[in-house]
Amino acid sequence: MDKKQTAVAMKLLKEAVKPVIKSKTLQDTVAYIDEALEYFAHDRDTQMYMTLFFDFMQDVYEGKQAERVDKIVHGFITDNSDEVTARTMRSMWDYLAEPVDRYFFDTMRSYFVRPISKAMNSFAERIGTWMGNDNALPHSPYPPHTSWSKTVKNYARKFSDMSRQARQSLAFAADVLQEQDQARYSHNSS
């Protein structure tokens, strides 16, 4: 392809892409996604709830939840009961702890956490492949951080930065195209 053919191809591409870039719907959609990611990445309450959720899911996935639930229950029983009641409650909890783990947490792990984890890993791999496995993106094998919540925060911040850049770039491109159209229109009018 020589320079003239390249210039014609670029002009045709610009004319084909111009309505898409200037589209109010696209700009509103990108703005909505950017605001949602910004909220998710920087709102303290959201981060607190997501930290609790993802850390709990990680404990269930890794099988650590039984130990933590035991500590919580034993602490509650010991702090809120007299010695005899505490011993009775502790004995009863020791008897119930294994069935709770087997029927509740194992079921949750099998039917909820593992399928979601598998889908999230698959999604992350597809996004990484689509983006060319750029080293600037946080791409590392499990466990990339000490907890899932830190990993989610890291990804949320990266995607929030990328969506902000996309929003600004789209707005800038639309403004440039609008100014070019106005300049061409005013030049053709005179």
Automatic annotation (TrEMBL):
Protein known as: Uncharacterized protein
Naturally occurring in which organism (per UniProt): Scylla paramamosain
Superkingdom assignment: Eukaryota
